[in-house]
Amino acid sequence: MPDLLLELFSEEIPARMQGKAAEDLRKGITDGLVAAGLTYDSAKAFATPRRLALVVGGLPLSSPDQREEKKGPRVGAPDAAIQGFLKSAGLTSIDQATIQSDGKKGEVYIALINRPGRATVDILSELIPNVIRSFPWPKSMRWGSASVSSSSLRWVRPLTSILCTFGPETEATEIVPLDVDGIVSGNITYGHRFMAPQPIMVSRYEDYVDKLLKAKVVLDAERRKAIILAEARTLCTAQNLEFIDDEGLAQEVAGLVEWPVVLMGRFDEAFLTIPGEVIRATIRANQKCFVVRQPDTGALANRFMLTANIEASDHGAAIIGGNERVVRARLSDARHFWQTDLGALPDAGDYAQEAAALGLDLAKSLDQRMGKLAHLNVVFHQKLGTQGERVQRIVALARQLAPLVGADPDLAARAASLAKADLTSEMVGEFPELQGLIGRRYAELQGEHPSVCAAIEDHYKPLGPGDRVPSDPVAITVALADKLDTLVGFWAIDEKPTGSKDPYALRRAALGVIRLVVENGIHLRLTDAVPRFGEDLLSFFYDRLKVQLRDSGARHDLVDAVLGAGGASDDLLLIVRRVEALAAFLKSDDGTNLLAGYKRAANILKAEEKKDGTTFDGVVDEALIAARGAPEEQALAAAIAVARQAVSDKITAGNYAGAPTALAALRPAVDAFFEKILVNDPDPAIRASRLNLLARFRAATLPVADFGLIAG
Questions:
Q1: How many Å apart are CA 372 and CA 374, to the nearest integer?
Q2: How far apart are the first and last CA of the chain?
Q3: Which positions fall inside the DALR anticodon binding domain (predicted)?
Q4: Are 204 and 233 contained in the same domain?
Q5: Which residue has the higher pLDDT, 656 or 253?
């Protein structure tokens, strides 16, 4: 089967855009092929700093013939309707249509339209220019003399050539004729910008990849990344050092080079007095370089790994030297920021009022930073006050939450008062990604309690599904206070997430609260613990809890079932434990059969209640059952009484796994009842008694879960 090879060659494609651009190209072309009636076996896109490429395998030589029946007006319809039908169907006379009987309209005209297939090359000649002209670059430009027209081609950087070939694997391919704003397609590409800039003639994908490789271009970004990581590890091993993996940086660097060459540079050991996180952030952000460490101590080494895009004649000496000069300058800046942050602020005496409100010690540098943040009246949100006011709320909430979490209230309040202090530091101003972590380092240097230091760094966590959850009680307390204050505040001013929009990351904050309490085993009644925590916000938490459980493989319908039972509505851990217990129960034979029995009872009751409007409340005539009830009926009544008490005892004792298991004792009696008993007895009194007995069975399950909300 023929393959399509397409390459769009431009002056530059920024690394941050390459991955999405490759996917957009693949989707745009393959969607167009499918719309044109063409099938294909495979499609893979690639990106380098100068090219987007796509190979589509297994295309047919032409699209299939299509036959369509187009229904027209009824026979005898007005002439205008007939003429409109003829025009839309491509007919010249109504005699070319057939007549069929339609149950609603009577006899109607039918046009049988045959559309012959088109050559795939012709389809590609139309499709590809349309995809190029409408390409969804986040930023694009016009260039040259044509740029005066608003209708001229836009591309991320000037598009200079288009390679497009089509043909079978074993025969000669042909150039797909394209013309996009004067850029005509061909079978020519170009190798590495410096090492092999000559034009290269190619015919198909395998030929293309092989010739590019010989011309110092590695087409696949994943392969470039693997080369970078492998070479970096090898160089480190040779120097008895350990490479520090950085997946995100490796992906970014792979987008900066077509021919990766890894080199090792060094910096002055004196800079190692700066925290390792600062060194790493500095070298990563400014030079896109990796750092390494000593394998025995784990401390950073005064080396860094850089990736060049050329095999230099001096073996990279000039490239290394240039990077070392920049790294030296940037680390000098970082050391200055670090030393400045550790010094006293000249106007710290002006922060006395703020210090008093937050319990700060202005003899300490980090306290001064917090005093400055409050004194500057930096606005957190127009309707929610300043950062200083927010910190006061977090301090108060942390002190209130601490006993519930098992933390020392004074340590929690101290940590909360300093948690945002590093936002005014020089270091965070330069490297925002270090907020929290730098605050911890400064707190350690001024002798704060280890739990306070940990909380300053960890109170932002968890930031996402894969992020670490704090385990220190003080850190948990401050993290909860920070997130809950955010949620309650934005709910109070009606700034809630809508659809896909969540500008204040409130969904992430709610999921963070859920993970904090569940993964640390904390029973926390939110509406009691947090002022102004309303039912609407609680419903939002229920939705996030369902997402969390679904993502972890649990059934989210069980959340509704447990919530429908009541009693645990604002204790998230309790809800999760009851969901887990219910899920385990329903996987057992007893659980499966009891659920089936419940559904049968509920359906009978629903039908009867709908029939005559009577509500069955579970109040049974005990004397009637004793005197006239069948043995199976009497057994069920007795089993329900025992199960209700057992379930109540389990729940009171906090044995949530045992509560649904206690219901399992009902299964034999329920099975026997449905096997032997006619519910709709001719005697109205017996019939009503038996329906109320089923209602009692239904109610007996409710303390565990609303079984009616369980799917299946």
A1: 5
A2: 46
A3: 596-697
A4: no
A5: 253
Q: Where are the alpha helices (DSSP H) in 535-666?
A: 535-551, 557-565, 572-587, 589-612, 622-628, 631-652, 658-663
Q: Give the whole-angstrom CA distance, residue 561 versus residue 549.
A: 14
State pLDDT tens for residues 109-154.
888 877 788 999 999 999 999 999 999 999 999 998 888 888 899 9
Tokens of 658: 């045992």
Let me know if residue 555 belongs to a domain: no
Q: Does the residue 550 lie in any domain?
A: no
Query: Token pair for residue 271?
Result: 């800079």
Query: Count of domains in the chain?
Result: 5
Same-domain status, 470 and 491: yes
Whether 56 and 10 share a structural domain: yes
Q: Write b or e for each residue in 125-155: b if 16 or more Cβ atoms lie within 10 A of its Cβ, otherwise e.
A: bebbbebbeebebeeeebeeeeeeeeeebbb
In a domain, 172, yes or no: yes
Does residue 558 belong to any structural domain of this protein? Answer: no
Tell me, yes or no, whether 287 and 244 share the same domain: yes
Q: Given the structure tokens 């920024």, which residue do they identify?
A: 14
Q: Which domain holds residue 703?
A: 584-709
The helix (H) or strand (E) run that includes residue 630 is none
Tokens of 705: 């879960």
- Choosing from 284, 313, 342, the residue where a domain stops is 342
- CATH number of the domain enclosing 518: 1.10.3210
How would you class 210 by CB atoms within 10 Å of its CB: exposed for 0-12, middle for 13-18, buried for 19 or more?
exposed
Q: Per-residue pLDDT for 465 more than 90?
A: no
**Segment 569-605, tens digit of pLDDT:** 788 998 898 888 999 999 999 899 999 999 999 999 9
The residue length of the chain stands at 712
pTM summary value: 0.78
Are 594 and 635 part of one and the same domain?
yes
Tell the residue number behind the tokens 């020519």, with chain if given. 188
Q: How would you label 548-566 residue by residue, b for 16+ Cβ within 10 Å and e otherwise?
A: bbeeeebbbbbbbbbbebe
Asked if residue 384 and residue 279 are part of one domain, the reply reads no
Check residue 52 and report its DSSP letter: E
Phi and psi at residue 474, to the nearest 5°: -65, -45
